[in-house]
Amino acid sequence: MADVVVLPDAQAIGERLAAEIARRHDAAGGPFLLGCPGGRSLRSTYRALARGRRLRRLVVVMMDEYVGAPADALHSCTRFAHEEIAGPLGLPAARVWLPDPDDPDAYDAQIEAAGGIDLFLLASGASDGHVAFVPPGAPRGGRTSVIELAETTRRDNLVTFPSFETLDAVPHRGVSVGLATIAEARSLRLVLHGADKRDAARRLLALEDYDPDWPASIVHDHADAEILIDEEALP
To answer: Which of 61, 104, 154, 178 is positioned for an S-S bond with 142, CB 3.0–4.6 A?
Structure first.
C-alpha cells in the first residue's frame, strides 16, 4: 500500500515534490528521467521546480498525447510540455519525450534504453481513476499504445480543458503509456488536491491493493510510492 502524505494545499505539495526531484536529479549519475502528466494536478510542482533551478540532466517523459492534436492546441500535451515544463527550466527540445501514435512500442524501448524512469508523477481522474489515458479495466501489463478514451475520461478532460466547450470536441483516441510502463519506474508519486478530487481520494484511500477498476491504484502495487493529498481533497 502506498504511503499517504497530507499537506496544506497544492503549493505545499508542489514545493515538496520539486525539492525531492531536484535532490534526486543532483544525486543521479546520468540523465534523470521524470515521468510527467499534463493538466492541472502537477502544475504547482512544475512551477516550483522552475524557481531558481537548472536541471540540465532532466529528461521530461510525457505520459500521453491526443491522437491528431495540433502541437499548439490548448489541450496538446506537446504544447504543455514545452510551455509549462521545459521552457521555464531551459531544457532543449531533445530532452522532452512524447509517445508517437504511429510507433507506440518505440516509447517503452526508448525509456528502457535510457535506463528507465527514475520518478513518475501521477494524477488520478476525478470520476474513473484513469491515469494517463489508461481506462478502468485496462491490463496491468499494458505498455504504450493507442487507446480509445473512456467517456468518463473524456468528461474529466472537458473539465480540465474548458476550451473544448462540448464533450463532442474532446478527442476519442490518445497514445498513452501503460500501467506496466508506469509500474516499472523506480518511484511513483501521485497527487490529489482540491475539492473536485475528494471522491477520487476517497476511492483510492479505501484501497490497499491494486484494483483494475481504478487504474490510479497502481501506486498500491509499488515498493516506493506516495500519495500526496491536500487538506481540501481529504475525504
So the answer is: 178
8 A C-beta contact, residue 199 and residue 91: no
- H helices within 28-125, ranges in order? 43-50, 77-80, 87-89, 105-113
Ranges of beta strands (E only) in 124-170 are: 145-148
Q: Whole-angstrom Cα distance, residue 49 to residue 121?
A: 13
Question: What is the CATH number that goes with domain 3-233?
Answer: 3.40.50.1360
Mean pLDDT of the 40-67 span: 93
CB-based contact 221:183 (threshold 8 Å): yes
Chain mean position to CA 105 = 19
Mean pLDDT value across the chain:
93
Write down the pTM of the prediction. 0.93
Top-confidence range, 50-64, 70-84, 178-192: 178-192
Residue 171 confidence class, pLDDT cut points 50, 70, 90: confident
3-state secondary structure of 124: coil
Q: Where are the alpha helices (DSSP H) in 51-190?
A: 77-80, 87-89, 105-113, 151-160, 179-183
Amino acid letter, 234: L
Contact 25, 32 (CB under 8 A): yes
